[in-house]
Design brief:
- The complex is a heterotrimer of chains A (245), B (270) and C (233).
- Chain A has four helices and ten strands, in the order ββββαβαββαβββα.
- By secondary structure, chain A is α+β, with helices and mostly antiparallel strands.
- Chain A has one domain (28-235): Ribosomal Protein S5, domain 2, CATH 3.30.230.70.
- The mean pLDDT of chain A is 92.
- Chain B is 26% helix and 29% strand.
- Classes of the chains: A alpha+beta (245), B alpha+beta (270), C alpha+beta (233).
Amino acid sequence: MGTESDIKLINEDGTRIDGRTAEELRPIKIETNVLNRADGSALIEWGGNKILAAVYGPREAYPKHTQDINRAIVKCKYNMAAFSVDERKRPGPDRRSIEISKVVSEALTAAIMVEKFPRAQVDVFIEVLQADAGTRIAGLTAASVAVAAAGIPMRDFVVGCTAGKVEGKIVLDLCKEEDNFGEADLPVAVMSNSGKVVLMQMDGSLSLDEFNQATEMIVRATKVINQIQRDALSAKYAASMEGGE
Amino acid sequence: MRLPWKEGSKVPRDELGVLSEIKKGYILRQLKEGKRNDGRELNAIREATVQTGFVTRAPGSAMVQLGKTRVLAGVKIELGTPFADTPNQGVLTTNVELLPMAFPTFESGPPNENSIEYARVVDRGIRESKMIDLKKLVVTPGEKVWIVFIDIDVLDYDGNLIDACNLAAVSALKTAVIPGAAQGLEDIPLPVTCTPIAVTFVKIDEFLVPDPDLEEEQASDGRITVTTTEDGNLRAMQKGAGGAFTFDEIREAISMSFNLGKELREKYFR
Amino acid sequence: MQESMLLSKNKGIVLPGDSVDLEGLKSRNGIYKSGENEYRSEFFGVVQVGEEFVDVVSFAGTYMPRRGDKVVGKIIEIGPSMWIVDINSPYTSLLHINDCPWRVSSGDLKRFMKPGDYVYAKIMSMNEIKESWITLKDVGLRKLEGGSVISIPPPKVPRIIGKGGSMVNMIKDSTQTRIMVGQNGHIWVDGAPENISVAVEAIRLVETEAHTTGLTDRVAEFLKSRKGETVGN
């Protein structure tokens, strides 16, 4: 985790470098079906992150030898645009993005009813247009909205948040400086109804108490974020639904 | 900030591969009635929206929607060494990524021949028009110059990527700022001299139409792109996608490109 | 089934995993059992409570073949004795030469239908790994020629058809077009070009407002307002 720095990440009054309190999220906004071509899509703006998630499928898995006769495979591709970070990123996958793609695929596989679609594949594309710490969780949070918008059956909904340790203090939703110079980073995604964990990674240093504190914060935050997901999906339908038929 | 995403009907799934004979016949029947596939006039281009500054972290960026085609151009400007044969010039590179989210059959991986062709056609228009004054990008002759990276993400594909990418790249460059302050120099606007506009046509039967949508591209036999500048000069041309054109047709494309280029400049770059 | 769904009551929007109150009725489409007396939604959609059943109707989604469904499919490949047909589903379907109306000998399929051609066909059979076979041997089934084909999300097909075919018939009559609606969301429309345009616009209107009330009246009004643009009336 982070390198030593002279930057003061926690202010005298306990607030953070960007003025937030320990358990305060950055602003989050989600918009659904922003793309015409994809079966489902979502744009998430989370702090300075701008991330597009798009879903295709289920469609017949290709190449054929990758097909599973019992279930659909979920293939996620996480990618950062060349201009998404301060120093231009060379286009194409690197080891970090390949690992993120894998854990995000696995998180979504847990929620999607893959057994309904033998031999098929669900493609999830996450494109980071602008990065500002926490891109994998923001991407996954948008991706589960895109999967639902695509009309793919799921047993539960996926929502995530990050917590970490900064100057000895457990804080929610790390910003860029905290991500770079903090002491621990804990991205977690859960299923919103069952509460089960579908993605978790950690690096840095945490005691068990700190871990418990961090995960409690994350669980509380996912309730808030799930509501944002819910509102984003139903916004355009809710108004025209009044009265029922 | 309200994003320029437009809600529309999904593009039908059946139009991914072979364009059906039924659809081809329909497009041609429409053209004979003086209408395009999507109902516009024969020589009209689709409505475009341009939003500059979409990626605030990049020194220049533009989200462009042309019909249902959507691309995002980001410009990065970094210090580097000049090419040995042009020690007194900055460097310009253009790259197009056909993201798999944009179309069911686009695959991730290294650039394929299509994305390389599109990037090179866009690059030629910008380079040959001398839109960016590369001589002004020198910090220390022979040693240190500004490198301008134009990266274009294709997000949603419904035909005519070249014109959408050109419009996005030019819009992004026009708003780009050289981040000199971070290097102990000064932040200055990227030195831009003109506005190259690419207009692409396809030939469907005997019709030559600008700004084709995807179905028109699939129904066409031949594509031609003409890039012009406001001084009335041609700056780049590219014939692509099979088929053959008569010189009369090419002259027709050139004169239409001048007119449409003027129209676009007035609309988006006043 | 479609009709009973249309007569049912909308009980709000749910997300996947949300619990669904069955109100003592039986669960049917889009709902799974997650525990003793506990039912949850599979989709982002609307809960519809009918007289006997509760469904969750998704706002989007793919077509899953069912025996007996009529579909509009596109030939995408040719084998030695069968056509491979895209039925707007994760899975392609097969049409064997014995199930078409012509005498086709093996290896001579292209003369009858080639990639890009459309058929109006019926799902004849399918197996548990979703392989399906279609047939052209039944009343009204055939190769489609001329016209135009558009696509809508398959969950919205019941609204396009309407109660007892009322919606599609209204569009057909008003625009003087022939329309075949596949359960798979592909719709074939034939007629004069300007009539097709109006019919397609009407279908798009139903598609975008499929979940709203008073839709039939709005479509009727739309068709009336566009009457001047069609020919043959």
